């Protein structure tokens, strides 16, 4: 009994062991909570998305950092041609890849009716036999009237005879003037017929290369439908976007360098033609247009590139 009381733990030691047990239980729980909090924080953090638009290039020898503005090249003259009237295609005179000059006929519609109308109007205009007759008669009557005036004063001819000759001359002059006005109207009608005939033809307004021919012989087409595509690559423009801060420093007329192609293997010097006065609210970028000559066609419009500031 005395030995059992001797080994019985004291109240202070019992409290110490209880504290150690509680601490041993709390440490794993606290560590697990901290790990879960870190995992939730990482999951809730927004992922970093690479920014599009202008990027910063490498530092040059002078220590300045160049701004690379991405963009695309476009042909200055890339047009779609169509007819102003509907009809049936009666002749296709070019094909893809053909070089054309300004004013060259590319295709034409059925045109026989319009061609006959032009011939009819031209024949009517050329028929001036009646006009020539009236002019000759006018000259004769004018001479007779001038010859009778001195005789009227001497009484050799009556006033009634003199008035009849003057009235005949006046009638011929009036008919001649009316016929001349009719000939002017016929000229206008001929011009309208020629214009109607010309509208049956599709001409290229520029010098360039045919890139697409839509219709085929015998097909019916509508007015203002794109029929032939023509492009002139002798002058190209670059359309890109730069940050608003750099856009505020860029001026129209400034010279910039363009790096074109997938590997930026082509370099061109271009002149700035337009800097947008407004910035895109989503990206903060402004549009820039620069132009350069491309006489040999080495730069194909449509390739991507970067404008270096």
Write up what this structure looks like.
It is a single chain. With about 300 residues, this protein is of the alpha+beta class. The chain contains 6 helices and 13 strands. It has 3 domains: about 45 residues; about 100 residues, Elongation Factor Tu (Ef-tu), domain 3 (Beta Barrel), CATH 2.40.30; about 130 residues. Helix content is about 40%, strand content about 30%. The strands form 2 sheets. The protein has a 6-stranded antiparallel beta barrel. Strands 6-5-3-8 form a 4-stranded antiparallel beta sheet, with no helix packed on it. Helix 3 packs antiparallel against helix 5 and helix 4 packs antiparallel against helix 5. The N and C termini lie far apart (about 100 Å).
In short:
With 309 residues, this protein is of the alpha+beta class. It has helices spanning 2-7, 11-44, 112-126, 129-154, 159-198, 244-249, and strands at 55-59, 65-81, 87-92, 99-100, 105-109, 201-203, 208-213, 220-221, 228-243, 255-260, 266-275, 285-293, 304-308.
The total strand number stands at: 13
Taking Cα atoms only, what radius of gyration do you get, to the nearest Å?
Answer: 46 Å
Kindly give the count of domains: 3
N- to C-terminal separation? 98 Å
Q: Element order, helices and strands?
A: HHEEEEEHHHEEEEHEEEE
Give the count of helical stretches.
Answer: 6
Uncertain regions spanning at least 5 consecutive residues: 1-8, 32-52, 56-65
Please state the average pLDDT score: 83
Largest sheet: 6 strands, antiparallel, barrel
SS-based class: alpha+beta
Instruction: Give the oligomeric state of the chains in this entry, treating copies of one chain as homo and distinct chains as hetero.
Output: single chain
Question: Helicity level, as a percent range?
Answer: 40-55%
- Strand residues, percent: 25-35%
Provide the spatial order of strands within the biggest beta sheet.
Answer: 2-9-12-11-10-13
Shape: elongated
